[in-house]
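Marked as duplicate of an earlier ticket. Keeping the data here for the record.
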Amino acid sequence: MKKLYIETLGCQMNKSDSERIAGILSHFGYCETDIEKEADLLIVNTCSIRQLSADKAYSKLGVWGKRKKTRPSLKIAICGCVAQQDKEKVRQRAPYVDLVFGTHNIYQLPELIKRIENDEKICAITATPVICNQNDFKILRKDSVNAWIPIIEGCNNFCTYCVVPFTRGRERSRNPEEIITEAKNIIKEGFKEITLLGQNVDSYGKDLHNPDITLANLLRDINKIEGEFRIRFVTSYPSDITDDLIDAVEECDKVCKYFHIPMQSGNSRILSEMNRRYTKSEYYEIVSKIRKRFPDVAITSDFIAGFPGETEEEFLDTLKAIDELELDYSNTAAYSPREFTKAGKMTDKFLPEDIKYERLERLNEKNREACLKSNEKFIGKILTVLVESKTQKDGKTILNSRADNNKIVHFEDDTKNTGDFAKVKITRAQTWCLYGVPIE
């Protein structure tokens, strides 16, 4: 067997792509290793949402290029969003790379690998995806408890800061029967949690032009599968969260009461500049509607600090929104200009780096405050959790688990195993997690 090493940078969609890549290559004599130096084929699966991620990818290629000088038979590949966006730049900066393939070309790997094994150097980047039944390919899932299923890829929104429409393309939904078959196989394999993935997951089905194919109905169908398991979905676009979707979350006992809804800014003018299709007040209405239906729901978000032209007062609206919305957690980042995007051309409005990162620091502090405040509300409550892993500490078995609402819960118990469900009474809260005791 030849050995394969994949370095995955970026979101859950990238991680899911890496699992599919490993599965495809397992049919061609490659087994995955966690040790870079053992590998015969090195792949970096990249994200280009922020410049830092792209820089990490090129840094990794540089290290591997030095290794290839002493081991010419070593094969190096780059895939994902940086490859899709920078195909010519990659070949210029790293001419030793054997294979560059984009987000649309994963299912061409059988042919591409044969060619690089014959010492060809290939750049396989297409503007449209290679269409196939994804269930025809094996998936090597790394997690033993949680499994990801991409249900829609790409984005039609063209937010002015975001490169996803240029790297992942327009929205493309998978056939629901194909998704349900994959979900059934996941449950048969013993997984206890399914996460449905999409850049805009609640846009699922719009491109299929069938009013019955929606995320809400897909949740209902997967909920009917026999077995003890949970269902999540990420990432939601605020204005695509329909009343029917909220109804489905309430109806389906296996669907987690958790919503990840990126807001990006708490100021309506900045939201308009970002080309987000909602105002501050409309976002507040969506959150209010969800909270009224689910008292213990967790709502998380994303925010950008220092968008071009953002004033101090507009930034303060973001800090205020986190408090007023009682958000449970937020992913945060300083604005990073991306090639091809409209905001990336607003150079006359770019803020100085020190201002951007000072705002990010304050945003992170507000996020920490919000997380602790959110967690403290659960002290004394009983949560149903799924054990994801366990560790030994001072001779005790500590179970690391996740509640329905995505809260991390640690508790001591030597009777439960990874993959088990348990009821835990919360006794203590910290910024990023909860502690509790098991109850019968």
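See parent ticket for discussion. The chain has three domains: 2-124, 134-376, 382-439.
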